[in-house]
């Protein structure tokens, strides 16, 4: 067993603290993000709040070590006067800053896959919409990060953007094109490819033939297709999605005189 720290300091105290007695030290705290405060405020619930971490100061006041956005939302809520807190003893601002760094540096971030499965269990509208389009195309989300298999994806954010930009129909068709083109590739359902295809399909939904689209990209490995797109990007700049859209469009249009497709606009 590796050496452990035996000097663990004083036990913290658990208390309810008046929000008016709490301050934020700008020497080490990040700037408060109003949109995060607003999100917490709109969905305020004690079951989701947890306890903030405070450092006891002189004069009966406290400094926020962790949880300043939750504290700010609590200050703005008309029904909240006190917040649950873990109160820790620190030896000055330097010690508080060290605790702030340790708490935030050592915390394991929740992945988009974990957020998706939790959201689906909680009945979150975004997670349900993503699940619906995946299920309609014979796909699903990986059970955990790194567990890749054909027809599974971890591109949660990309699918969410596709649904908002190009709609469920184009997103579903894009997923099915990828399935048909590379049925055995465990990493085929990647975000940039899904987005590029959904963009093309939405812009050409009345003229594009999915069977021809599959036939155009199937001979290309995803690595070759990506390299082709990168060549476009070096010449004309733009996003990876735009470059990939150009590469796919060129392959589809090759040898055609009629029924040509175009990449369409990248929607916000």
TrEMBL record:
<dbReference type="Pfam" id="PF20188">
    <property type="entry name" value="DUF6551"/>
</dbReference>
<protein>
    <recommendedName>
        <fullName>ParB/Sulfiredoxin domain-containing protein</fullName>
    </recommendedName>
</protein>
<dbReference type="InterPro" id="IPR036086">
    <property type="entry name" value="ParB/Sulfiredoxin_sf"/>
</dbReference>
<dbReference type="InterPro" id="IPR046681">
    <property type="entry name" value="DUF6551"/>
</dbReference>
